[in-house]
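Q: Here's a chain of 1124 amino acids. Please give me its 3D structure as tokens.
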Amino acid sequence: MEMKVKGIICVFSLFLLVVGLNGSAVGMDDLSALRKKAKERSENQEKEIFDAMSEREEKYKTPNGDVTSEVKIFSKGKKMRIERLIRVMNQGDQDGNAEGIMNIILFDGQKAWEFTSLFGKEKGKREISNKKWEERQRLKTWWKWLPEESKIVGRETVSDQDCYIIDVNGEKQVPYNKIWISSRNLRMVKGIKKYGKRTKLITHSDFRTLIKDLEFPFRSEMYVNGKLQSTAITKSFEINKGLSDEIFDPEKVEVKGLDFTEALDEVFSKTIPHGKWSPGIPKQEIPDNIPSDVREKIEGLYSKKARHRMKAAHALGKMGERAVPAIPFLIAMLDDDTPVIMGDFYKRTPGGAASSALSQMGRPAIEPLISILKEGNNKVRLESLMALQNLYRRIKDSRIIDAVIEALNEGNLKVKIRAVIILKEIKSPRAIEALSTAMQDKDVEVRKKIVHVFKSIKDPRTVEPLIAALKDEDKEIRRIAAEGLSRNKAPIAVDPLINASKDQDASVRRAAILALDSHKDILRVREVFIDALKDPDVTVRRSALSIIAQNPVKWSLEPLIFALQDKDPKIRKRSTLGLAYLCDGHAVGPLIKALKDSNKGVRKGAAGALGGLYTKTKDPRIVDPLIEATQDIEPEVRENAVGALKIKDPRITKILNMALKDKEPGVRGAAARSLKSIKDEQSVEHLIPLLKDENIEVRIEAIGALREMKDERVFEPLFAVVKDKSYRNTRALKMKHPFRRIEDDRELAIKVLGEKGDPRAIIPLAALLKDNAEEQKYRYKAAEALGRINDPRAIDTLIQTLEDKDKIVRQYAAEALARRKDRRVLPTLLDGLNDKNVFVRQKAASSLWHFKDDRFVEPLIKALDDKDGYVQEASARALGRIGDPRAVEPLINALTKKGMAAGWARAELQAITKVNFGHDVKKWKAWWIKNKETCIKFNKIEIQMKENTDPELVEYLIKAIRDQYPYTRKRAARALAYSKDSRVLTCLINALNDPNPGVRASAALALGIKGESGAVVSLNRSLSDEDKEVRSAVAYALQKLRDKRSVEPLIIALNDPNRLVKAAVIWALMDIGDPRSIEPLIKTLRDQDPSIRSVALRALKKMTGESFSRDPEAWLKWWNETKK
């Protein structure tokens, strides 16, 4: 069995969790203030300490004596080097490892490495990820890792230090459950962490002053379950000694004597408890009549060195069933637990290797393993179970299940736990039944493991065992059972969960509340949640409120208003968000009161909620309290209040103009956003100074506001921003919005000038575009902006840019000209298709889409074979728009390409041919061979009909719509969409009954394009056509006709089984806009398909002007109140 051991090399890193910084006594019981003070002191100390060097001795107690480690730590700014020399024997022990084992961890300010020989074949250094290094450093500082939910629960004197006692609360993984922080120096003096039945205690003492106001503990001790396990004593600590940078250079690190594999085995064999192994079968009993290589490896099992025995076992496993003669010898080695530490720091044993080998020998190994499972000692049985587990993955043999179930009823705890793990993996009815029976086991760890298994399996058969586990005497089992019932939902679990919500343990109550969240019978569980809001435990109250606030319409106003009175500020803040979502005028009063709350987070939430309420209700009571909140002492509150005042009123405009001068950038930015919504021209003169604000985000918001103004005064200041070449640092913005493409203020100003289209912008934009010394991104933006200005001078500038030295700038200019369909750009675009730069080819291919010219067909066909997927995709789109038959065969071949190119090829083939065979290349090729001439012919006819409805062509099409060949009828129906001949309506209505579904679909589309209201009744009937493509085409036609006679048939069609038809029906109802369809569309928000829910939501928003997200209850409540 493998067990991860970071062992002696890193166990002492626990002592690096000496945390916090020093200072004079702090008289405060507010944890946030304490954390803030510690952070400030840390930052101040970083300014004073340029480098530091310390030496310490660490001792770790083992069953075979003490292990000593000598540690040196060097630091300089962010750079760090930790050297650890581990000594196991006395220096005079000639047989031992007198020199010790050296391990070095180094961070050079950018990357981290570990230097050792213990990483397999690659000797020397191993890189540590920056994420892992940063996490290590974070855990050394208590105020960085301490969760927000933690709280100060008292004070106590520890090691002559007056300490704050902090309970560490929160769901994320933390190094301690409780810590003691010195009120004098703000360092951690003591910390406790519980791991199941183990309790770890760390203490720090002997604090000494290094420089003024900087104390450091020179002694640290670790206890496990009350027994001293390790001690660290600092021998020296020096600061600001001018350490050389060479110390932190990874290229100059030397670790002598790197090859420690044998020594390491000896070290761990003396420090890790294990039995003394001897062969169970005499070596002379190895058979002679077996393959020589098998015999050789069996003999290797008798080596005195554990590492060699392990390698021999692995070699036998690789031989598979050829090594069956080795089975009894491998079974005899299963109890060999001599530790062998591999390069990845995992402890392995020869017994584990034997187990792995046996699992590779197939059916012949099953019976021997089952026999030893019944007869062997506990170590052997565990390894036997592991082997059987791996065998079952290859061979689904029922004998293995029987053996594992039998082991589950055996007395040893570890054996039973392993049996549970295996049965979890099997998941058969017999396995679940056996686990259910074992829930009566007297050992709590077995029951706990089983209930964990049931929690992880989504299976209705686990419901009853989980319900039974809600009454277990162990609180953790009850909690896990409740969590399991959240995953395995069943009506019979509701009452047991309601009872569990009254459990004496808070964690059980919380889990039960979360599990009841998904229950649909609100009346049945409503009181449970309301009672939970009164629970003495804050985590239970928070869980109940989070569920209510997520869907407040379902729970109504009262619980949220009640939660506003809670003593926990997080609950009060969360309730403000829920009240905002309700859009109920009754919430205005409580939220106005919350603006006076003592907690800034609550006031901030209330301000934001009132802003949202005003948008929906226009309640005049909201305005004055929000105005008052703009003067709040906390910037976050002012920011939300200012951001909420999106009200077109001279009084509000004046307040927002004043807020533009606030000392906090967040408030200034919020004021600009509100003025952007109001669009009050009187604010222009107040916004213009913000274009020079020190904060880039404020400058961006100001430009966004000026973007909406039509005032002539905005141009000159925007010109000034465009001309400003000073460096823009957008790093903070990118970190704040990691998934957005961030435009700095200069880029945005260029874009805004282009959008406004004022010819006055040509000169500054042209100057920027022509300046080769400028950053490329600004020149790109200038080209795009000039392309938006409808002035010959802008076009001339872009034409001149086609000769620019920078080929990417040329392509941006070409793209801008292509949008204007200026044909002078074509040589540049065609050259760009063959450019070495992939970005140039992408721009060229996408720009050619704007030109529907068959002269580009051949270059675009060639571009279909480009190495870049986007070039392929853009070329396919351009070819489809041109519609030339020469593109059909290349597009068919493109169906085999990866990514979006194949999808666009299919779509464009359908556009050209009006048929769809998906991505089936064979069908497309066969069809094209047969129908090529007809397709080309009708494509030309359709173009002619769009330009001029020739009477002779109409006569031909009227005859063709009755042709015996379906494709001819289909194309004729489509072409007749552009005819005004009175006979066409009858022809198309008749075609709705054509035996071919493609013809019926084309006829429906044609009726929609023609806008023939006389076809509505016939189209309504066709909504029930047996073919989904026809039903989808009919819905599209009805969308175009917008006739209220289609509303009822379309409402019925909302139940269509096909996703695409259902979406087309929703679009049709949206465009018709009849109120009768609102309630059916609200019900569609419960559709299982998320895409249908999205389309329905979009339709509802357009039809009503309201927005309640995807919450059908909120929509229904609003509709019931509004429809009359």
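Q: Can you summarize the key feature?
A: The radius of gyration is 38 Å.
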